[in-house]
Amino acid sequence: MLNDLNPPQRKAVTTLSGPLLVLAGAGTGKTRVVTYRIARLIRNGVRPGAILAVTFTNKAATEMQQRTAALIGRRKRGEKERPEISTFHSLCVRILRRRITALGYPAKFAIYDRGDQESLARSALREIKVSGAMLKPRDLLFFIGNWKNKGVRPQQAAELAISDKEHLAASGYRRYQKALQTAGAVDFDDLLLCTEELFENHTEIRREEAARFSHVLVDEYQDTNGSQYRIIRALALGHRNLCVVGDDDQSIYGWRGAEVAHILRFKRDWPEATVVRLEDNYRSTGPILDVANRLIVFNKERHPKVLRAARVGGESPHVLQFADEEGEARFIAEEIHKLTHSGSVQPRDIAILFRTNEQPRAFEQELRRRNVPYVLVGGMSFFDRKEVRDIFSYLKLVVHSTDEVALLRIINVPQRGIGQATVKRLMEQAVAEGQPLWEIIRHVNASTNLPPAATRGLCSLRETLAGIRGLLDKRSVEHIVREVIDQFDYRQEVERQYPNANDQELRWNAVEEVVNAAAQHAARHAEAPLAKFLDDIATNDRDDDKENQLKQNAVALMTLHSAKGLEFPHVYLVGMEEGLLPHRRSLAEDEHQVDEERRLCYVGLTRAKDVLTLSLAQNRRKWGKTHTSIPSRFLFELLGKADNPNAARTMAHQVAASKSPKPHPPGERTGRSTSSSHRRRQGKS
DNA sequence: GCACTGACCGTTTTT
DNA sequence: CGGTCAGTGC
Description:
Helix content: 40-55%
Largest sheet: 8 strands, mixed
Shape: globular
Number of strands: 18
Distance between the termini: 53 Å
Radius of gyration: 27 Å
């Protein structure tokens, strides 16, 4: 096994005890090192169950599970244990399910996803009578997120607040947290925070949880935030067998609280740590690595390293400039069409990477027009669809009767005569009595002072839910999901809301997908209860995610963030413009933010194995208005022309034009249509 | 309580 | 441009 490895990789695999920092550049066989290391630990007699590997995405976890399973072979008879390989969030869910009562939470807590958080934020703002002009739900969540990242509690937030906005946000935070508590729920950040708190305040629990493992590995270490770091430290402090793997040049989650500082100062926190550098890149050809290396040296704070190409030859990256985003999409879609049609390249070998989620639209349209199969990874998830959220709200309510967000969402869906006035009254009563909303509804009867229709509606809701609760633990999750859809007559609700047959079908398909998701989940986790299904959905542990999407033979469309950890023979990195990459929001702030954008660009470049194409548009439409754009500074940097601002004109190796010449704004003259490409394109579309 | 209408506003990136 | 939300009439 070790023969497949070069000396530094071998060192990373065989240094089994003590802290170890593996600084692994892109494409240097990082995954292989981690999996081999796990296999070697087991071979050396470490109990599989005593190994914990933490990843950032479920996709990475699944992949690592599969690879290690393949490596350690079919386990010996009777040996059921496997290394624990999971994301931070699922790890925390598992710990909290067992331990959260120590923090005064109910044992059965709900997990609120982004959508739930938004509803909570909205009602918190309504309660304190803050209009959207002053503070929007998103803004509030942004503040709350920042505070939680730093471990700031609502109380302290109020003290720390300086600006008016911060004061408002602080009191919103208090309401928000209170609402979470009465709903018996935690949000994403709480999963980490509660675990941290648990370890901090309950030494015996920390010791017991830590004792479950003798070796801890963390992948993508550059993306850990403060909480995650402290959780890991709490788990590894006893045995100090902590191996972290990461690349500071690929740290792209600073906005979410990740601190590159963790990887930069690992040696300080773990002084006896061994450091291994992996700089031999097996993924990309030399010319691709040249541009990547040239770009990344513009960042100041980093562990200096240069990727060396293990592969020889390769073509230079292409740079394409277009008149507008439609031209960009049309040309690239056409090129992909030709590539895949000739049979030399499979659709799955190609990726189109972009900075923002508004960019793929044009590409989708053009790919569809040419019948090129594609998958849009991420973006508006199927789980964010209205119907799907409704179904999940019923399900959540079946499991957690205190879940207020879910209750409010479906209290009158389908319509059962409960209007705003009734809801308001119930809420007031709940607040007055200090009870969860559900408790009030539980006691509603004919003598309650409510409109008769509302009383009838509430009773029917109560009965339906009770009926379904009776099925818990008796029937499969799939059966329960079907039952929910049936009992609530959701089919008719869809038909009522969408008179158009086409819409109806589309919406109903989404509903059926929930049943499929339940069936798939059951296939992976036999006999898992409904609560586990809901947890997994909330923590993004979904079957139909990235992994499965990418298995299809289709061109992948995704953001640069989603692309981390993946590789493709052909990569199109589109929208190489100032304002987009680097994004305008990062330009307003300090230089650190531009550095992160540069790392993002670096991640994009290093996804490419064989052919890398960069593209940009001279004009881009946003909200119906056309806007002239300037080539990204990163283009100049990576082409080695950073000191030559006139390079804009000579930069394009190949210039393609959109269908008809458009007048260019004065001063933005760029050489175009020097090639025959635009004539070639005239006949199309 | 419910359906329809126009004003408004926004878009980084996501576990 | 397109989705969301508040206000109006039934």
